Each structure stands twice: as C-alpha cells, then as structure tokens.
Amino acid sequence: MSAYLEIRNLSAVVRGTGERLLRGVSIALEAGHVTGLVGESGAGKSMIGKAVLGILPTAVEVVEGEILLDGQDLLRMPPDRRRRLIGATAALIPQDPLTALNPSHRVGPQITDRLVDILGWSRADAEARAQALLDEVHIAEPARVMKSYPHELSGGMRQRILIAAAFAAEPRLIVADEPTTALDVTVQKQILRLIAEMQARHGTAMLFVTHDLGVVSKICQDLAVLYAGKVVEQAAMRDFFRAPAHPYSRALLAATPQYTDPTGSLRPVERDVLDTVEAEIAADDREWRNGQAGP
Amino acid sequence: MARPDRKGTPLYEVDNLHLSLPDMTAKPLIGAAPRIEILRGLSFTVPRGAVMGIVGGSGSGKSTLGRALLRLLEPTGGNIRFDGHDITHLPETRLRGLRHRVQMIFQDPMSSLNPRRRVGGIIAGPLRRHGFDRVEARVAEALDHVGLPRDFARRFPHELSGGQRQRVGIARAIALSPDFILADEIVSGLDVSSQAQVLNLLERLVGELGVTLAFISHDLSVIRRLCSHVIVMHRGEIVENAPTAQLFEAPQAAYTRALLDAIPLPDPDQPGW
To answer: How much is the ipTM here?
Structure first.
C-alpha cells in the first residue's frame, strides 16, 4: 500500500549555524492511519509536523529530503501552490486552545472564516457546517457557543472547538501537536476519545505529536520515537509496547511513572543509553557531513 | 537535621479552612467584586516527616491550599496551626520569624530563578535575608545535597538544563534547613527522564533531612512514586485523604476513581479505554 504522506530523509538545520535539527527523518503515513511522533523536548517531533504544514520558523531551513503528500513533493512546489494544497487538504490541532483562538473574536467566525475565505464557501453553508461539526464534537447548543468568546468557555470546550475547526474542511491529513497536554486528565480522556472517534469517522490520516507514551498507546497504529531529531525506532504501536527494540525506547518507558506499579520504581534514562544514542547520532552526522562535502 | 523524636506528630493541623478571593472578572465598575469560595472547609493534619501528596484537577484549589499553608494567603475562616502555633491570621511582621522554616519550590524554574544572578547568589539570597551564618558553606552543602558540582555556583540559570534548574530551586529551599517544603507541580515541566531524576532526588532528601514535604501535582502516577499520604481535592473540598497504598488499592471517592481511570498508561490494552 502506498503512503498518503511520505517523509523521506528529511534534514533541517538552523540557518547560519548549520546545527542539525532533523537528521534524515523518514516516516510513511498511510491514508486513514494515525502515526505517533514521540520524544522528549527538543527531539524534533513538533518540527516534523511544522515541516509538513510548511510553517517552520524562518530560522530553520530544510536542506535535504522530500515530503510527498499524495505523491507530490511539497518541498519542490512553488510556495503559492503549496499553501493552497496544504490549506485544502491538511489541518492542525494545536496544543494550547487559548492561544490558538483569537480572544477578541467570537468562536463561530474562527471556524467559518477559513471555509469562506480559502475554500470559497458561502457564509450560510459555512455556518451550517460549523454547527453540524460542533454538534459532532458533542457541544450542546452549538448556535449559542458560536456566538461566545473563547474566555467564556472551558479548556475542554475550547479544545473541542479547535477539533471541530480542524475537521471543518474535511482534511485528509491532520497534524495534532500535543493536543491534550494542557488539559486535566479527566478532560484529556474525553478529548482523546473524541479525536479518535472523529479521525475514524472521517478517515483522516493523522500525525500525533506527544511526549506521553500513555497517550500514544491510546490513539496510534504506528509510532516513531525521536531523539535529537533522529528517528531511533519506528514500529507498529502494539509491537512497540510488547517489545521496544531500541535501548532508548526501553529507557523512556522505564522512566515513565505508572500509578499501577506499587513500587513506583523510576529509572532515569541511564548515561550509557544516552551515550549509545549520542554515538549513533555522531556517526550519522559524520556520514552526513561527508556526503555534504562530496560532489 | 533529622528530628526522629518527634516524627509522626502533627506539623500542620488544619481545621475547617475556608478561603475566598475576590472574583475580579465579575467586578462591577464601581463597588466590590463578588467573592469566590476557593477552599470550602478543609480539615487535615500533616504528620512530621510525611510526604503529603495533594492532587486534583485545575481549579480544585490545590495551589491555593499550598499558599495558605505557607501563609502567602490569609484564610477567611477556620484555622491553621504550624508546630503548635496558630498562624491563621498572624501579621506579616510576626510571620517573618517563621518564614525560614517553611520553603517553597516552584513549578517553573526558569521564571522562579533570577536570570541575572548566579546560582550561588540565588541560593545565598534567602540565607542572608534570614541572617544565617556560614552562608558560603551552606550554599556548597546545598549544592552537594542536590547533586550539582560546587562550581555551578558561578553559573547563570540559562546555562543549565531544565532538570538542573529545578535542582537549584530545591537547593535554595533546603539550604535553610526548613521544617516544611511545599513543592507545587515541580516536575510537570520536565521530560520524563529528568522527572525521574528529580523525584529520586526528592525522595532521598526527605529521608536524609527529615523534612516534611507537601507535593502538589495533577499526576497521580508521580504521587504514587513519592508520597506517603494523599489528599484528593475537587472543587475546593477534600474528597479523600488516605495513606498512598490505600488510596491506590481501594479508592473510596468516586472522583478519585474517575481520576485514576482517566490516566493513560503506556499499555494499548488498558481496560476502560
């Protein structure tokens, strides 16, 4: 089966310094599947999502690789065409629902504007669609909520609205960037279920960025573990939790506290495990620099 | 600093604690803001040497409770006894003599460490303010305790990693040899690997220094790792107060069970999901 989104050997550096942020990342995502991107802060997991959506910070430069969306390379496309393609086929569920919503605008237009301005829907169609979606994300009284301002709603409600907004234009790809990290656990559970339910119903492919191995085990079919911008392990989710292959993956699992473990033993990621990964990365960098220096 | 003779006797006794604050979002242009009841009649004791976990959702009042214990906020009802003294309404001048005995570690070490001061100065600040002797030596000992090299005293916070910064926050608190430390969500900003190190460190320090710790967290997995007792808060009330093993093995309150069930474990076959 060919992948809907295929990232091939993607490398990104800091403009000017040349410091590597992504180290030859290759990830394939099939249509309708969810792939988790897991790692600690600075591992580059959000960076991958941003590269796909074409919203990398200007200080970051992609120097190598391909991002194929339905067979078309996003990186070798005129920016204008790329923006329109991504606008029509992909969407983002961001981490912090409060900063992602404009506090001085009512919620309704923040969902419908994109449909009207970018996709050319009529205002009436867009509003009907927004109401239907708010209903789908289990918001009671969608008409009233659309007239509310973000501060009048709870964190869980705001995240539901952003989920509705992400699905509004029937995207084929969604990047969910830590969408439940800012929420209480009880709300997180509802929102995770909602995302899974919406994803399955709409058959959307999803890149799910998270630092939480617990969350990843609830929503993904596949996952990639990242360290310092390098994919250290890629596996089917169930295989991963049955037998994580890379020492760093095992260490990460061992460092994750679990309330079901009465001893509560926690092993920080050991120095020799980090040394192993760092050595792999150094070798990778040497090879890369040689390749760069060559013809 | 161990005080084994008094271990288990109450350090804090809290009785029917109420605290309300003005709701500035609902304040009319002229006149007083309506008050919101944040803590609604809490009663509990913190035994000396305990590691008391305080858990609850956002807005449950757990941080407000912590700040009331340190008397950074003044209760509006009930009373708080610290080491036998009623501190409920003590004025700031009288609190000053107690301040060095109760310390706090903050959630975000970046914003709670002065970026323009070196680590040594940050740790020495409260020592000097409270008139301690041997300041340099105490700073060095504090760094030893948290496992940072002594020459870190010359570094600035931005030169440290997140986990190292949090160790500085811990060193600043323990340098005063306090009886009580309040740790408010101190590992929630850390990656799991540094989180594990900081938790292991705290556990060791509690044993070595005989300090009593209140550990506020939204994460029950972390609480189980560290705490001897747990208070579960919901909407300003204590819904459950139990020894840790009992709370996890036989949770009594429906809210506690809901909290436990909602925690995603790294297990694709977790029941209830």
So the answer is: 0.85
